[in-house]
Amino acid sequence: MFTTNADDVCCHDPAEAEAILRAGALPEQGASSPNTRYIRHMFNEVAPFCDPTLLAVFKTFFYNAMTGVLMEAEFTPEASDEVDSDFVRVFNGFSQFWFTALQFTDPCLSAEHNRAFWSAALSSCVAFLNDVNDVLSFYKEAVDGEDFLASRIYRRSVSENIPYLAAYRRSLDSGLAAYRRVLDLATDEQRPHLDRYMTGFAYFHFHCRRYRWHDIYPGLTPIDI
Description:
Layout: H1 2-12, H2 14-25, H3 34-46, H4 52-72, H5 85-91, H6 95-100, H7 115-144, H8 146-150, H9 152-159, H10 164-185, H11 191-207, H12 213-216
Helix pairs in contact: 1-2, 1-4, 2-3, 2-4, 4-5, 7-10, 7-11, 9-10, 10-11
């Protein structure tokens, strides 16, 4: 859950993203803020549960997201800039970090012993998380206003001059296609874990207060984090 909080903080404070990147890539800089100190603690806690190579990759995925925050900060509100938002979206949002965390759940998904699967599936894993997050975050972003202007769906609608709903449906279709690709690449043993994870990702969005779906559907049981 720390990554969710860090994402919110850094999206509204690029200077904090810069500080986190410097602390991660330039250890001589030291841990200058509570966030950077906690990040070191977080990875120290994870380290006993994975080999050093995976830990290095896992850290890289975390810091990639901070790079994405800095790229996204260059978007113009009217979505008329030349920044490649699809490329930036791959970096932003911790999707690589979050999906590979699934490797800790069962030996059949161990990144150390299933590197070929992760190499083949990760692009679709990232596409699924990004697209589904975009689709299920739109209400939260619309209420915020500023976040909505930076969202990929809105920016695609403006830059391609297509209705917002058409851009929204494209993200939904892309997310569902990515879901199917991930399951197609999985073994019979891996598939239930992956299916449960992706289903749970959507469930989390609907029930977590952060995404505000309870405002629209009061019957949803909210989850506090």
